[in-house]
Amino acid sequence: MGKLKTKLLFPLLATCILMSGMTVSANTGIERSSTGEAFTLDRYNQNIYDGKMKEEVYFCPVTLTKTEKGQHLYAAEYTGNILNSKWTLEYSEHYCIHSSYPDGNNWMGFSFGRQSCKTTKCQPGWIATCAKCGREITILFYSTKDTISQIKSLTNGDCFISNCVDPNCNNLENGAGINHKCDEISWNRYTIQYNGSGANGGYITNSYHYYNNNTVFEGKTVSPQTKLSTNVFYRTGYVFDCWNTKRDGSGQKFENEDDFLNIQNKLNLGNSDNGKVVILYAQWKPAYSTLVINPNGGSYNGETTITQRFRTVYSLDSDKLTPPTDATVSYDTQGGYEIESTHTTTHFSGWTFANPLRGMFSEKYKQYLFGAYDTNNIFASTKSDWYDGCVDTVTANYTGDSFKLPEATYPNGDNPEDQKRFGGWYADPDCTIFVGGPGDDFSTDHDTTLYAKWSTLHLDSEENWTANKGKGAVDLSWIQTDSADKVFKIYQKKENGNWTEVKSATSITDDLGEVKASFVRNTDDENTEQIYTVPYSGIYEFILNGAQGGNHGNLIGGNGGKVTGRIYLYEGETLVVGVGSQDGKGTRYKGGTAFRQKLDQTGAAGVGRETNQIYYYQGEEH
Question: Where are the annotated coiled coils located (predicted)?
Answer without folding.
Answer: none
